Structure formats: structure tokens, C-alpha cells
């Protein structure tokens, strides 16, 4: 079974600074997808960034980027130029390749951006 | 992009009654729908997977008779909490997998906050 571990229950960062959220996962499969989802106080799940395991290049989306280390099974999220609106729960998630597989979530990291 | 409409957004019900939560895919066909439960400050816990045209698959420890899931059509999946009790109070979220739209990620409903009094 696949597992996802987020070891930082809470983190805080000053506005405009950079923060990195950690995520490790365990799987015996070679083809899969990894995601970071954001859940603000509204509780709506918002896709932040995704990474296909077969791609060596790290995904980037504006201020968000990942450091994907497949051999180490690590998938960290870096948020640059943090904004107050980045305050939210962040969940790392894993799914097998196929398009209809279930998402496995980590326990989440509560990020607070301070003014 | 793909949208899943979830209703109601919140509901308060009396202990012993049943509550139905609906999730509709608005601009695509969802042959599969995942149902999650989330307690405050915790992660999403998969309860069950509904599939159009077949029985739902429940995760270990989830009571099938309490949480009835029906995938009536390619655009509608429902979760009915039967004989609700205060311990069933939680946040319930549905999610449709991307299928061929893997790049779009999974689509989530806006969630339903259930309070049983």
C-alpha cells in the first residue's frame, strides 16, 4: 500500500520570504503522480502543483515549485515570495498512474504567513 | 475546468434521521467518485469509492449500512448518512478523478459540513 508522510504539522513564514514543505512517500510502483493541494479556511481543495513520476524535471507554477527526488521518494514544495493568501493547510498526495485511481493524502502541514 | 457541485454546503439534523449529500459533475462525466471524511485539523480520509453502474467500494472500517453511496448516473453520486448520530458530525468531500485530464488534477466538491444534534 502507498503511504504519504508530511513531517511538519505546522510552519510559519514571514510575508515575502521563502518556505519549503516536506513530503515523503512510499510505493513499489514506478509510474505515479504526486500533487500538492491547498485547503484554505473555506475548505475548498485547490490544486497547487503536480508532478509525473516519469518526468525528471521539477514542476513549477509561478511562485510554487517542487523538488522531486524519485530515488529518495521525496516531494517537497517550495513557496517563494510568500503571500498572506498562502495561509492554508497543504496536503501532499499520491496516486497511481491510470487517471481513475484514488488519492492518498498525507496528514497535512498548516502554513501561516505572517505580515 | 471541470467542476463538481456538492450540496448542501452545510446541514444540521437531529440524531436518528438521515441526510443525503449530492455531488454532480457539471461539465463532464464522472464514472467514479471518491468520498472523503475530514475531521477538524486532520487530513482527508477516504470512505468509499462509487462507480456508475456497480456497487460502491468501501474502505476498511467504514459501515456500509450507515453510509449509503449511490452512483445514479454519469453525473450524480450521492452519500446518505443513515440514522445519523453526533459522532457522524464531520466535513464530507467528494472528488472526481481526472481520467484523461490527469494534468487538471482531481476535482473536489466544496464539501458538506454535517452537524448532528
Strand content of chain A: over 45%
Indicate the structural class of chain A. mainly beta
Mean pLDDT of chain A: 95
Most extensive interface: pair and counts?
A-B, 23 and 26 residues
Uncertain ranges of chain A: none
User: Ends of chain A: how far apart?
Assistant: 41 Å
Overall spatial form of chain A: globular
- Please identify the structural class of chain B as seen in this structure: mainly beta
Count helical runs of chain A.
Answer: 0
Largest sheet of chain A: 6 strands, mixed
Strand segment tally of chain B: 11
Strand content of chain B: over 45%
Largest sheet of chain B, in brief, is: 7 strands, mixed
Query: Which oligomeric form is depicted?
Result: heterodimer
Helix content range of chain A? under 10%
What is the CA-based Rg of chain B, rounded? 14 Å
Along the chain, the helix and strand elements of chain A come as EEEEEEEEEEEE
Based on CA inertia axes, which overall geometry of chain B fits?
Answer: globular
Mean pLDDT across the residues of chain B is 93
Order of helices and strands of chain B: EEEEEEEEEEE
Number of strands of chain A: 12
Structure overview:
The complex is a heterodimer of chains A (115) and B (117). Chain A starts with a strand and ends with a strand. In chain A, the strands form 3 sheets. In chain A, strands 2, 5, 6, 10, 11 and 12 form a 6-stranded mixed sheet that branches. Chain A has a 4-stranded antiparallel sheet with strand order 3-9-8-7, with no helix packed on it. Chain A is mostly beta strands and 115 residues long. Helices cover 0% and strands 52% of the residues of chain A. Chain A contains no helices and 12 strands. In chain A, a hairpin with a 6-residue loop joins strand 5 (32-39) and strand 6. By secondary structure, chain B is an all-beta fold. Chain B contains no helices and 11 strands. Chain B has strands at residues 4-7, 10-13, 19-25, 32-38, 44-51, 54-58, 67-73, 76-81, 90-96, 107-108, 112-116. In chain B, strands 2, 4, 5, 6, 9, 10 and 11 form a 7-stranded mixed sheet that branches. In chain B, a hairpin with a 2-residue loop joins strand 5 (44-51) and strand 6. Chain B is globular. Chain B starts with a strand and ends with a strand. The chains are: A mainly beta (115), B mainly beta (117).
Amino acid at each position: 500500500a502507498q503511504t504519504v508522510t508530511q513531517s511538519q504539522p505546522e510552519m510559519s513564514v514571514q510575508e515575502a520570504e521563502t518556505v519549503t514543505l516536506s513530503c515523503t512517500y512510499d510505493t513499489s510502483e514506478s509510474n505515479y503522480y504526486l500533487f500538492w493541494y491547498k485547503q484554505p479556511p473555506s475548505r475548498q481543495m485547490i490544486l497547487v502543483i503536480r508532478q509525473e513520476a516519469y518526468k525528471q524535471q521539477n514542476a513549477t507554477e509561478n511562485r510554487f515549485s517542487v523538488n522531486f527526488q524519485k530515488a529518495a521518494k521525496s516531494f517537497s514544495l517550495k513557496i517563494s515570495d510568500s503571500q498572506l493568501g498562502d495561509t492554508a493547510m497543504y496536503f501532499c498526495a499520491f496516486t497511481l498512474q491510470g487517471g481513475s485511481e484514488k488519492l492518498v493524502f498525507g496528514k497535512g502541514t498548516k502554513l501561516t504567513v505572517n505580515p | 475546468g471541470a467542476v463538481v457541485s456538492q450540496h448542501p454546503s452545510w446541514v444540521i439534523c437531529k440524531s436518528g434521521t438521515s441526510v443525503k449529500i449530492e455531488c454532480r459533475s457539471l461539465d463532464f462525466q464522472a464514472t467514479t467518485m471518491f468520498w472523503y471524511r475530514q475531521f477538524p485539523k486532520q487530513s482527508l480520509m477516504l470512505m468509499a469509492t462509487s462507480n456508475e453502474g456497480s456497487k460502491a467500494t468501501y474502505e476498511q472500517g467504514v459501515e456500509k449500512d450507515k453510509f449509503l453511496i449511490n452512483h445514479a448516473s454519469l453525473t450524480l453520486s450521492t452519500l446518505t448518512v443513515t440514522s445519523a448520530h453526533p459522532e457522524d458530525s464531520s466535513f464530507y468531500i467528494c472528488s472526481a478523478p481526472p481520467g484523461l485530464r490527469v494534468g487538471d488534477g482531481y476535482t473536489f466538491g466544496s464539501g458538506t459540513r454535517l452537524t448532528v444534534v
